[in-house]
Amino acid sequence: MAARTADTAPVLPRSTRALVLLGLVVFLLVVLVPFWWIANMSLKTYEQIQFATSIYVPRPLTWENYTGLWTNTRFPLWLRNSLVTAFVVTAITTVVASLGGYAVARLRFPGREPVASLILILYLVPPALLFIPLYRVLAELGATNSLTALFLAYPTFTVPFCTWLLIGFFKALPKELEEAALIDGAGRTQAFTRVLLPLAAPGIVASAIFAFTLSWNEFLYALIFIQDETSITVPVGLNLLIYGDVFHWGELMAASVITTVPVVALYVFIHRWMVEGLVAGSVKG
Amino acid sequence: MRRRASSRDTGTAALFLLPLFVLVVALIAYPFYRAIWLSFTDKLVGYPERFVGLRNYAYLIQDDTFRQVIRNSLVFTAGSVSLKILSGLAMALVLNGVWRWRNFFRGMLLLPWITSTVIIALTWRWMFDSFPGRGFFNSVLLDLGLLSRPVAFLATPEGAMLAVIIANWWRGFPFFGVSYLAGMQSIPGELYEAASVDGASAWRRFWHVTLPGLRHIIVITTLLSLIWTINDFNVVYVMTRGGPGTATQVFATYSYEVAFNQLRWGRGVTISIFLVPVLLVGIVLISRYLLREKE
């Protein structure tokens, strides 16, 4: 048990190691089998899927679902809509959340604690509670049936979340640099833009990636606020590839691969920060 | 001097928080107020709303379908959250024991959490498909000789509930696992050493050191997940549309069904208002935990 002190790489007894390996294999299987199912099916011909031949691996392998998806469906348009929405929402969110996060973390003003609590509470309000009245409000503004509805609706969940993240992030930055800037005669705004913003860049990038991912994957608002088939986003479009009882599984799975890859790529960048910052940080402050 | 600095801050703070407040008031608080108001009306799409007092609430309390929705939501939430806690603990213990490439494996196991729920739900729907050999489970079970004929999981009430619970669990458990792992790594090693010196077995160390050390994080992840899961729309809508019959209809999908298919907006809103008390309790508990920690 002396090995316990070697904190980073504890030498475990052989039986424990075997158990850990077994557990790891089980968890990897549980997580990866559905992803393999998606990739596998996206590379099969219509006949292979329909008649359930070569279930576990595509034989022969084909790209026809990808080309079919691109030429025979409106997927490229949905992809464009999803991208535009995600970028606009990310931009709005980043501006609003950095300003708010900085104010709550660093400025002294009456009512700071209630504002912090309010942001946390808003983060916990589920979209399922607001979708009907929000639809009415957006309809009255004439914003439904276009991407504008999503530009307005998505910040209702991305902003509280990202502000909450950034409060923690701004609080963790050293106070001295900002104080030095203030003593040198800079105003709060200047200290914010010249000193704190560059320091906070990693946190802001991470929160922007979260905002992007949340918008990219959102389904409920997109389903309700937009009926026009040229303005829908990918998650809603995927459901349109199901006509009644006919499932275009090959194309659906190809679309799933194309939609998942960018998010995974983004997330590889922030994985370390996300795990240590989001999970531990947001939970422990 | 100090007062001047703080009053200057107040002006800046008001300016910096203005966009946030506009957003909150216009797109969260005002719609919420409208939701409360709508729940007291018999608003049908295309007709003006009429005040009916508590009639929507009274109707729903009597409504057999709504009672089933409550039962379904409880089964769905309790089932998937308890699975997430247990498998999250197992995942954290496994990752904590991994001696090489831990970050890599942690990243792999987090994949479900960043994937679109719609894609996850579509995939699981297909994996549970009953077409001979087409769905994953039927293919594997038939090939292993454990089944003689395919099972239509999604066509039976129990099977459909199980399927949506599993899909929701699969998406959610990595968050639990990673949170517990972070918690485990912050438990001081001396506690384990002391326990070992006292001759505590691995199980007793887990029970008396690890679990108490994780108590705080378990409470928070559970509360968060309870709120998210009881309000889930995506998994159920995409996999079963609440069916077969109303066997998997939950709050959000039923609210959608009533508001957008039956076009009864007043009643549809009232369904989600029923969750507000639950939400409030969750929010109070979580805030207490998180904000106390912030100090």
How do the strands of the widest beta sheet of chain A line up side by side? Answer: 1-2
Helical/strand content category of chain A: mainly alpha
Under CATH, the topology of the largest domain in chain A can be stated as MetI-like fold
Radius of gyration from the alpha-carbon trace of chain A, in angstroms: 24 Å
Strand content of chain A: under 5%
The CATH class name of the largest domain in chain A reads Mainly Alpha
| Number of helices, where a helix is a run of at least 4 consecutive DSSP H or I residues of chain A | 13
Number of strands of chain A: 2
Helix content of chain A: over 70%
The radius of gyration over CA of chain B amounts to 24 Å
Number of helices of chain B: 13
Structural class of chain B: mainly alpha
Poorly predicted segments of chain B: 1-5
Q: Biggest sheet of chain A, open or closed, and with what strands and sense?
A: 2 strands, antiparallel
Largest interface: A-B, 104 and 104 residues
- Average pLDDT of chain B, rounded to a whole number, is 89
What do we call the CATH topology of chain B? MetI-like fold
User: Alpha-carbon distance between the termini of chain B?
Assistant: 26 Å
State the domain count of chain B. 1
Task: Give your account of this protein's structure.
The complex is a heterodimer of chains A (about 280) and B (about 300). By secondary structure, chain A is mainly α. Chain A has 13 helices and two strands. Helices cover about 75% and strands about 0% of the residues of chain A. Residues about 1-10 and about 280-285 of chain A have low confidence and may be disordered. Chain B has about 300 residues and is mainly α. Chain B has a single domain, classed as MetI-like fold, CATH 1.10.3720.10. Chain B has helices at about 1-40, 55-60, 65-95, 100-115, 115-125, 135-145, 155-185, 190-195, 200-230, 235-240, 250-260, 265-275, 275-295. The longest helix of chain B has about 40 residues, at about 1-40. Chain B starts with a helix and ends with a helix. Mean pLDDT of chain B is about 90; it is low at about 1-5. The interface between A and B is large, with 104 and 104 residues.
